[in-house]
Write a structure and sequence with these properties.
5-stranded mixed sheet, alpha/beta
Length: 350
């Protein structure tokens, strides 16, 4: 008896295509190959799907010969030609600079460009094979310094770390202003159902000022009515109290006006703190931004707080229990800086 078993990678790819299938006939073909490849007998698959055993075997042969694309293109209208290697390489390069909302939109482009027709499910399989996944795009600042300016900052940072004396401390500082409202994020929800989350009508927010030591995973945090020169000086005082033996405390920060105010400048004249300013419009270089995003994900995502006080208490609790998040923060707060605007090498499909 022939063994039709498939390896885990093949089964995973088939199941992904099955989840994305919109046409019933496509789903049946994929289902037949999955069951046969998972150890079912052809007769058992045929009984379960109410089709002929020879049809099940034909689906499997077609899959092994031409892959998921060939299996799904049985329902295409017109030419059954598939994209060749050169066309796939061109499509891959095109997709790295063009963002499509649906596989159907990619299929339209392919048909216009090469007169090859794919169903949405067939194009989904092609996209998976090229290494693409369906996920949210990532926002980045519209204004940002040139890549060489960002790289010069990274070099400066590495030199400061390399040449600092024993006991010196390096921190990243910034403020965040989370509103008293849930941040809606993704989650596992039963197919066909909704998962409503209550929201608040007010616009109350917190003003949180802080500095993070990414080496020791220690944070100095304060809650203020407003973020200004006075609150910044108060944060400096907390930092100095947190590191009483540090000869020098290097603090990286953005170019907020209050950091350059007369009051802050005067305070720093007799302080152990030295400010190092990031290039303008470069939050990607401030590691505390990753910390703030992690904080919001843990406390605010998909979570409703009925009162502002309970919301504030949850935020404070996060910072008092920071040690419990250490393993995840250790992988997040690495000193690998994203350089925005730097052209990425294009990788073609051989």
């Amino acid at each position: 008896m022939r063994d039709y078993r498939l390896n885990p990678a093949e089964l995973a790819e088939l199941r992904a295509a099955h989840s994305a299938a919109r046409a019933v006939r496509e789903a049946y073909r994929l289902n037949a190959v999955i069951l046969l490849g998972d150890g079912w007998k052809a007769t058992e698959v045929a009984d379960a799907l109410l089709i002929d055993p020879d049809t099940v075997r034909d689906y499997f042969k077609r899959y092994k010969k031409t892959g998921i694309d060939g299996l799904l293109r049985m329902s295409y209208v017109g030419s059954e030609a598939l994209l060749n290697d050169m066309q796939l390489a061109e499509l891959n390069l095109h997709l790295q600079s063009h963002l499509y909302l649906t596989a159907e939109a990619v299929a339209r482009f392919v048909e216009e460009r090469w007169q090859v027709r794919y169903t949405p499910s067939g194009m989904t399989a092609v996209l998976h094979r090229l290494g693409y996944v369906y996920k949210k795009a990532k926002l980045e600042p519209g204004k940002h310094p040139k890549p060489e300016v960002q790289e010069a900052f990274v070099e400066k940072y590495e030199n400061i770390k390399k040449n600092k004396d024993d006991g010196d401390v390096v921190l990243f500082m910034d403020a965040t202003h989370p509103q008293h409202n849930p941040v809606i994020g993704c989650g596992w929800i039963k197919r066909g159902e909704e998962h409503p989350i209550q929201s608040n009508t007010g616009r109350q927010r917190l003003n949180i000022n802080g500095a993070i030591n990414v080496e020791a995973l220690r944070a100095v945090i304060r809650f203020d009515e407003t973020i200004d020169a006075d609150s910044t000086i108060a944060l400096f005082q907390q930092i100095e109290q947190a590191y009483p033996l540090a000869p020098r405390i290097v603090v990286f920060c953005d170019n907020a006006r209050y950091y350059r105010s007369k009051a802050v400048t005067a305070y720093l004249e007799t302080s152990r703190i030295e400010l190092e300013f990031l290039p303008p419009y470069a939050p990607n270089l401030n590691l505390i931004e990753r910390f703030w995003k992690f904080f919001k994900r843990e406390v605010l995502y998909n979570t409703y707080y009925e009162t502002f006080e309970s919301y504030k208490a949850a935020c404070k609790k996060f910072f008092t229990e920071l040690d419990s998040y250490a393993p995840r923060l250790r992988t997040l707060l690495t000193e690998k800086f994203q350089i925005i605007g730097k052209e990425k090498p294009k990788i073609a499909i051989a």
